[in-house]
Structure of Cytochrome b:
Amino acid sequence: MQTSITNTSTRYGWPTIILHWLIGIIFIGQFVLGFVMVRMASQRTSFELIQLHKSFGFLLLGLIILRIAWRLGNAAPPLPASVGMLERRTAPLAHFALYAFQVALPLSGWALVSVSTLEIPSMPFNLFVMPNLPLAESDAAEGFWAAAHWYLAYAGIALVALHVAAALRHHFLLRDNILTRMITPSSGGE
């Protein structure tokens, strides 16, 4: 049985599944890395982890933009008939919030390094210098963007936890195909 690239009426295609899990892993990994990097005793190790965090942040931003573009061209399979009206209305809002936070979080990090008075260049995976956003450098702006990045990170991880809890609820309590359709791709015949 051949699998499909595009989504079908019952399942997601390979690109959607790969982007979903890759973004999810990087997003959670970024939260862990961000938590660890600011608590390192060694300044050198902390600096290296911050550079890695910035690299994955830029990668995450690119992947989420790709995911949103792909999503706009590939309709998601409809929810099963067993899903209630409240969940039917809130699920799209929750997904929109996830996308918004996944865009806003790396953008706030990019803004943070752009306004920093330390002027340390961002070099994603040591491949090239990423230009700063056209924002004025200042300690006040750095404080604002650091706080924004921190709050967005914690709100984003709370949304991810809610998303995971909802998927597990569907799989183990409701026993529908919400989770499995994001694991097993659609076939070309569906």
Q: What stands out?
A: The mean pLDDT is 94. Helices lie at 14-37, 43-73, 85-115, 139-174. DSSP finds four helices and no strands in the chain.
